[in-house]
Amino acid sequence: MLTPFLKSWISGNIKETDLDSISIRGGVPLSGTIEISGAKNASLPLMAAALLSENPLTLTNLPNLSDIISMGHLLTGLGAEINFQVGKNGPCAATISAAKISGTTAPYDVVRKMRASVLVMGPLLARFGEARVSLPGGCAIGTRPVDLHLQAFEHLGAKIKLTEGYIQATALNGLRGGHVIFPMVTVGGTENVLMAACLADGETVIGNAAREPEVIDLAQCLVLMGADIRGIGTDTLRVQGVPSLREATHAVLPDRIETGSYAVAAAITGGDLTLNNGRIGLLEAAMEALRRAGAEVCETETGLRIRGGLRPIKGIDLMTEPFPGFPTDMQAQFMAMMAVAEGASMITETIFENRFMHVPELCRMGADINVHGASAIVRGVPKLSGAPVMATDLRASISLILAGLAAEGETVINRVYHLDRGYESVESKLAACGARIERLSD
Ligand code: UD1
After folding, report:
1. Is the CB of 209 under 6 A from ligand 1?
2. pTM for this structure?
3. Which among 164, 244, 264, 354 has the fewest CB atoms less than 10 Å away?
């Protein structure tokens, strides 16, 4: 039987879940075990990295998400071959062979759905001397330009032109090593230039590099493929270019944001969840914040365990920062929890502008939140009440799910399309731990 993943993959159509909604009747303390999937934000650059080599790259522990299908379609559109090994719940592994590439254009239709499509630029430019990528759209969280990616490619000798909504990058004689110092930390920018530098002529030094675990995972995979990278895990990466890369197999690291989101689900419902494959070391700052708010977090043999309900949740102040600081991708989830905490908290967003779109929706559920510039003051209320709400981006969507789990009455979250991009089987994972949650398909 074809799984939904295979149907989408073979047909080339991702099921439009724009009109789906999720209904939650809150108030149940969650209890049980959730398996944490492979990280979406690591899988996407890893899939793009396959373009660097004529030899196949096998990735295991891929999550079953629509973004994985979108990246797969982007790669096959360029001429790559992908063989997914599919389990009951989705892909377990994919072997990507980019031996024969027929084009170097990432079209508007794919890039508009998934901003991470821009990650094919570095590999294409490095291996074929050209790449044409539509200017990205994606999550509606601020302007999110790619200027730093482009400046970095220019430092490696590429010429960049913007025409008809496309970025055209060329390096007809190949890229050469150079010094790139990012003026601000950029995860995607670091990944893009790191991949490109692997095949550039000579040494590239990347200063103020992002140190996120997904960047480390990518660098480790590139080393398995034969790249020469030093300084992995620090903010200075030194890459000695090599002429070509070899065949490799790499297991994608567990999703730290999925882990953190379910950890908040345990705390906000006063429940007790074990998160298999979750790793505390990938999100120390968020785990420390959970402890400060009153939850108990401990490592287990297979992952980690979070217990809420031991004491009331306390309001705490948070500021998002590049890794190892508190992740911006956990900001919305913690805000949902602070909405029902004792006392007030101030949440400051320093990575993205306009990443408070969940605030009006949380307020519709009875939260007391005021935004002043980059900070939100959250005054905890004793209870949220269920309401129809609208999901606006990926992390906003999960924060509304968390709020719904804690609220009295029914919450209906509309436009769950974003959720399907980033959270594998969210309803069944939560339902198995006692949540009263169901998907209403249109
Ligand atoms: C990645 C993650 C995303 C996460 C973010 C920050 C993926 C697929 N997505 O996004 O979930 O929230 O890191 O941890 O891995 N910027 C520029 N110019 C650029 C690039 C970035 O101004 O050329 C700005 C952005 O607008 C933003 C900040 O830099 O304000 C950080 O963005 P960046 O780290 O690049 O985020 P992404 O890689 O897009």
Report:
1. no
2. 0.95
3. 164
